[in-house]
Amino acid sequence: MKKPPRKPSKPLLGDVGASLRGQPRRRRDPAQPQLLLDPMPARIDPCLALLKPRPPKGRQWAFEVKWDGYRLAIHIEPKGVRILTRGGHDWTDRFPAIVAQAKRLPVSTAILDGEAVVFDELGRSDFGKLQQSLGGRGGKRTSWESVCMVFDLLYLDGRDLTETEFTARRHLLEGIVPAGGEEAIRLSEEIEADGEKLLRIACEHGLEGIIAKDRNSTYRSGRGGEWLKIKCIQSDGFAIVGYQRSSSAFGNIGALLLAARKEGQLIYVGSVGTGFNASEAMKLRAEMDKRKVTAPAVRYTGRRKNLIWIKPTLVAEIEYRAWTHDGKLRHPSYKGLREEPDDAAVYELEQSRENSDKGQDYDEQHYSREQHPNRPVK
Question: Where in the sequence numbering do the catalytic residues fall?
Answer without folding.
Answer: 66
